[in-house]
Amino acid sequence: MTSKYEKTKGTQIGISSAPVTEEDFKAAGFPTAGITFLVAECATKEISYTGGQKSDIDVTTLCSTEQEQTNGLAAPAEMSISRNWVGDEAAQLALQTAYENDELRALKVVFPSGNGFYVLVEVRQSSWSAATSQVVGATYSLRVKGKPKRITAVASGS
Question: For residues 53 and 48, what is the distance between their CA atoms, to the nearest angstrom?
Answer without folding.
Answer: 15
